[in-house]
Amino acid sequence: MFTLNHLKHFVELHANIAYILITLGVIIEGEIVVGIAGIFSNLGALNIFIAFIATIIGGGAKSVIGYSIGYYLQRKHSGRPVIKMVERNVHYLLPRFATRPFWSIFVSRFLIFGAHWFSLLFSGYKKVKVRTFAEAELSSLLIWTVAVLAVGYFFSMTALAISRDVRKFIGIIFLFFVAFFILEKIISFIIELINIDDKDNASD
Predict the structure, then answer these.
(1) Could you give the CA distance from residue 29 to residue 31 in angstroms, rounded to a whole number?
(2) Of 1, 80, 94, 166, which has the fewest Cβ atoms less than 10 A away?
(3) 85: number of CA atoms within 13 Å, CB side?
């Protein structure tokens, strides 16, 4: 019978691959991957400090890639439809980007899926000062990494307290993640409404 110990042992045997997947997963988006890293850290299959470092490396690579692509597009492909789409999305989600780039870049990491990528591309496209960009990205990345790892760790602790049956454990974790993403969507929606109100007030 497949148990939590079997699952833990399997991840332990492939821990190096898991850390690489965490790094790559963060470059794409990251929340689910880092949350799962927190879960397996609590189970003892992964080292939470190495998972933290892998997340920081992935997040840093994502920042550099996004800014560089935006910078390249500004130089070689400005005015193209894809740029206008990015600009529309950034102005909709982050209407104060031009006047408060640090805050806009910082908060974009915590908004809906894709918002952070738009922010990275637009930062490069608008040639936001590298220091401002780096400080906003690093501070948000540190907070985000600790928060998401902690969420996964807490979910795992709670699920283990409820049941050690592997099927029930996975089911409970799944429900926790669904609840977490619903809450995140609600918070993101509220932030968007605040940003829209700010934009409307500024235009009056």
Answers:
(1) 6
(2) 1
(3) 6
